[in-house]
Amino acid sequence: MSTERNADCVFCKIIAGEVPSTKLYEDDWVYAFKDIHPQAPFHALVVPKRHLSTLNDFADEDVELAGRLMLTGKRLAAEHKLPGYRVAMNINREGGQVVFHAHLHVLGGRQMKGQLG
Ligand code: 5GP
Ligand code: ZN
């Protein structure tokens, strides 16, 4: 589940540049790009460069990676001057996950509603 790369994974292909994306940020740990079907004027996805299917595949040793995902969300919001924003992660089908390479949604640019889902 937590191999470096999954041959069938669209986000692994995006990270490798084999599927096009609009890159917003990249470092040794994470890659961030625009969501192809934005649910807000600003909708980014932040993914670990290493293939981890869901948050459930993060081990205790991945605590820094988990933090970097969150802080990349903060960085993107600052760069795009979002006065408020939402970060969210869907886990498993029951949690609304469709793409099984863990990703943080960063949404903003409109008034976010108080309720989720
Ligand atoms: P999930 O429901 O798994 O949390 O969210 C998956 C997200 O990935 C969706 O918002 C969807 O629009 C986005 N997405 C799926 N395939 C692609 C793609 O090929 N490129 C980009 N940029 N976004 C994608
Ligand atoms: Zn992947």
How does this structure look, described?
The chain has a single domain, classed as HIT-like (HIT family, subunit A, 2-Layer Sandwich). Helix content is 20%, strand content 21%. With 117 residues, it is an alpha+beta fold. It has helices at residues 10-15, 63-79; strands at 23-26, 30-34, 42-48, 85-88, 104-108. It contains two helices and five strands, in the order H-E-E-E-H-E-E. It has a five-stranded antiparallel β-sheet, covered by helices on one side. The longest helix is centred in the middle third of the chain and has 17 residues, at 63-79. The chain starts with 9 loop residues before the first helix and ends in a 9-residue tail after the last strand.
List the helices and strands and how they pair.
Blueprint: H1 10-15, E1 23-26, E2 30-34, E3 42-48, H2 63-79, E4 85-88, E5 104-108
Antiparallel strand pairs: 1-2, 2-3, 3-5, 4-5
Task: Please summarize what this structure is.
The protein is an alpha+beta fold and 117 residues long. 20% of the residues lie in helices and 21% in strands.
Keywords:
117 residues, alpha+beta, HIT family, subunit A, 5-stranded antiparallel beta sheet, 2 helices, 21% strand, binds guanosine-5'-monophosphate, binds zinc ion
Strand order in the largest sheet: 1-2-3-5-4
Small-molecule binders here are: guanosine-5'-monophosphate, zinc ion
| The CATH homology group name | HIT-like
State the end-to-end CA separation: 27 Å
Helix content: 10-25%
CA-based gyration radius: 14 Å
